[in-house]
Specification:
Helix 6 links the parallel strand 6 and strand 7. This protein is an alpha/beta fold. The termini are close together. The radius of gyration is 16 Å and the shape is globular. A 6-stranded parallel sheet has the order 4-3-1-5-6-7, sandwiched between helices. The protein has a two-stranded antiparallel sheet with strand order 2-8. About 35% of the residues are buried. The chain contains 7 helices and 8 strands; from the N terminus they run E-H-E-H-E-H-E-H-E-H-E-H-E-H-E. Helix 4 packs parallel to helix 5. It has one domain: 3-Layer(aba) Sandwich (Rossmann fold), CATH 3.40.50.1010.
């Protein structure tokens, strides 16, 4: 059975969750991601070979990253935001490096599961989509977990054709909660699509 390698852009997952809730006229301030359930959704009952997570570190979110590492066993690779722009610096590229290293280091193709919020950059030959295509050409199974409204259409279509696209919107009650107000519901994965092992 093929093993799963998870590549997780948590900042984009969080921003996408806010957009998804706003589109549904649901409260989006004070929300948090239920890391354990999101990882379970990514693994889908298979064996986890490796997990790579990236994000940025404005001072107020250190506790979030500590919790992610504690709950999932995946230590996030963190980058400071640009002093002038306030935007993330090199986060996507760091995750892409992990994707390509994993593809090169594994003797046999496995399953790559990407947790992302956008999937931009394909037209320029950069970004997650381009590197997933490289992995797919080497025989890797491809699964993309993202939000319907924030994920690039080209990535959604391509993932659905060659592997599977999993709409995180379908799992909102299990992967998003309001801090101090609600808790995440149990995860039901009966309809969760998977690539063939």
């Amino acid at each position: 059975m093929k093993r799963v390698h998870v590549f997780w852009d948590n900042s984009n997952i969080f921003i996408g969750a806010q957009v998804a809730l706003q589109k549904r006229n649901m409260r989006s301030s004070g929300i948090r991601i239920e890391f354990e359930n999101l990882l379970k959704l990514a693994i889908a009952g298979r064996r986890l070979a490796s997990g790579h997570c990236v994000g940025s570190v404005p001072p107020e979110v250190w506790a979030v990253w500590d919790k992610l590492a504690r709950k999932t066993g995946i230590k996030p690779e963190l980058f400071e935001r640009g002093a002038e722009s306030g935007k993330e610096q090199a986060v996507d590229q760091a995750l892409q490096v992990q994707m390509l290293r994993t593809a090169m280091d594994e003797r046999e193709p496995q399953i790559a599961v990407l947790l992302t919020g956008d999937g931009k950059g394909f037209r320029d030959g950069v970004g997650f989509h381009a590197d997933l295509e490289r992995m797919h050409k080497r025989g890797w199974g491809i699964e993309v977990l993202s939000w319907e409204d924030t994920c690039a259409g080209a990535l959604k279509r391509w993932a659905s054709e060659v592997g599977c696209f999993v709409r995180l919107d379908d799992y909102i009650p299990s992967i998003v909660y309001e801090q101090g107000i609600t808790t995440a519901q149990p995860l039901n994965m009966k309809k969760r699509p998977r690539v063939k092992d």
